[in-house]
Amino acid sequence: KISTWNMLTFQDSNSFYSDNLISFHNLTMMMMTMIITLTTFFIFDFYSNKFLNLTFLKNHTIEIIWTLIPMIILMIICFPSLKILYYIDEIMNPYF
């Protein structure tokens, strides 16, 4: 397809590298959408709750969870990114 002004996605890929980059873009956009949605939900839920839970502010289990979840998300994004980076760095002889 030819790209137009109102296109929301990339053009159809013509190579292996661009296919991988488009897949990586889709993965990161999905992760960002999930993070923004969950964060917004928790913020609204926290502010709409009339009861203040004082144990929520000093809870070691919650602190461990909100430290580990971003690490896991970063690892999920990191490995495909490095894989694509090394694919692009390879020098291949074209066939003519």
UniProtKB/TrEMBL annotation:
GO cellular component terms attached to this protein's record: membrane
One example of a Gene Ontology biological process annotation: electron transport chain
Pfam families listed in its UniProt record: COX2_TM
Domain of life: Eukaryota
Compartmental location: Membrane
Transmembrane portions of the chain: 21-44, 64-88
Keyword field: Membrane, Mitochondrion, Transmembrane, Transmembrane helix
Residues annotated as domain Cytochrome oxidase subunit II transmembrane region profile: 2-92
Residues making up the signal peptide according to the UniProt record: none
InterPro entries named in the record: Cyt_c_oxidase_su2_TM_dom (IPR011759), Cyt_c_oxidase_su2_TM_sf (IPR036257)
MF GO annotations: cytochrome-c oxidase activity
Protein family according to the UniProt entry: Belongs to the cytochrome c oxidase subunit 2 family.
UniProt protein name: Cytochrome c oxidase subunit 2
Organism: Bombus hortorum (Small garden bumblebee)
Gene: COII
